[in-house]
Amino acid sequence: MKIIQVGSSGWAAGWLEYIHNEPEAELAAIVSRGGPKFEQTKEKWQIPDEICYTDYDEALKCEAELVIVAMPHKYHIPYAKKAVLAGKNVLIEKPLTDDLNEAKEFLRFMEGRKEKAFVSQNYRFRPQLWQMKASFGEDNIGQPAWANVTFRHGLTNEKNSEKTAWQRKDWRLEQTSLLLLEVAIHHFDMLRFVSGSNVKNVYARGWNPAWSDLNGVGSAFVLMEFENGFKANYSVTEKSIGFPCGYQANWIMQTDRGAVIWENDEPNRLDMSLGLTGQLRDDFYFPGKDRAGVLKEVMRELRGEEGAVPTVFDNIHSLAVSFAVLKSIEEDRTVELSEIL
Questions:
Q1: Burial 224-256 (b: 16+ CB within 10 A, else e)
Q2: Each residue of 187-219: pLDDT tens digit?
Q3: Which end of the chain is more exposed for a tag (fewer CB within 10 A), N or C?
């Protein structure tokens, strides 16, 4: 699969490693403003000058099946639209956008098109999550009932430290909510994936710790009810002090027969009800961790097979949860997702 990548620094630079390591993927073009860091990137991945562009429109003339848009959020949809109008499929970094109305308009734009638009929710691609999902069943570990998910991140109470410099980049200060649209959206999407259901309603309380250097909400408690009856108790903070966890969060998945604990990205642990037996499956399908899995699944989906990378029509249900949580915090009430969508 030939790929055009838009963006070359920060998170975007990481995509080059995944493309390089995927035998079926080939970098057809890369769009960058250039500069010393890009020259280092070119040397590291042996990218020839002839496939490097500063003009996006010119790059889109290259033969390619997929365009990866890995830029600040406000550029996601404008650049994705250009790719689609050029007849390319597109993989957009999460979040799709910081503006829900823009997301809805993009869905209307995509209606009926042969081109596909995917969103890279790379945290779906964790083997522990897939193992849980594969192990559910009345003859095994039971059906999912609820989850307790806790995300703690933040190492210092010092404001404006080097550790938090990434949160204060100019474009990030323009974000609707760094906490909900940069971080929590991962966990909302993971919960939708593992439960097999969309969120029905949320109730949230949010605040910003006194030592925070974030704009807006820095911490939140969220209760979620899903359409299939599954529930989640979710705690998220970018401004905790001590005992941080990885960005995948720490999980307890409760079923009607036992519970699975996933902590610090260690292997899952299972504890069954007294008198019952069950086991976590080891023979489940898993395409690869993080963006390696994203690329594998996108290629499958473009071949017409089923895959786990959400299209924009699926991902809107994860994006909407973030906006529902913000609305619940602002209005101090339960918010139905039907109000958002």
A1: bbbeeebbbebbbbbbbeeeebeebbbbbbbbe
A2: 999 999 999 999 999 999 999 999 988 889 999
A3: C
327 phi and psi, to 5 degrees? -65, -40
Q: List the strands of the sheet with 250-255, edge to edge.
A: 269-272, 258-262, 250-255, 144-152, 231-237, 219-226, 199-207, 335-336
Q: What does the pLDDT read at residue 165?
A: 67
Distance between CA atoms of 301 and 258, rounded to whole angstroms? 34
Cα separation of 188 and 199, whole Å? 9
pTM metric for this prediction: 0.95
Q: Both tokens of residue 80?
A: 């994705």
Are 304 and 132 spatial neighbours (Cβ–Cβ below 8 Å)? no
Residue type, 72: P
State phi, psi for 334 to the nearest 5 degrees: -70, 135
Task: Answer whether 51's CB lies under 8 Å from 29's CB.
Answer: yes
C-alpha 53 chain-centroid distance: 27
Omega within 30 of 0 (cis) for the link into 95: yes
- CA 85, CA 191: separation in Å to the nearest integer? 33
Q: What is the pLDDT of residue 175?
A: 78
Using DSSP, state whether 332 is helix, strand or coil.
Answer: coil
Residue 316 near residue 79, CB atoms below 8 Å: no
For residues 142 and 225, the answer to whether their CB atoms sit within 8 Å is no
Closest CA to 71 of 1, 216, 172: 172
Band (171; pLDDT cuts 50, 70, 90) = low
What digits encode the pLDDT tens for the residues 15-57?
Answer: 999 999 999 999 999 999 888 889 999 999 999 999 999 999 9
Strand intervals (E) in 218-321? 219-226, 231-237, 250-255, 258-262, 269-272
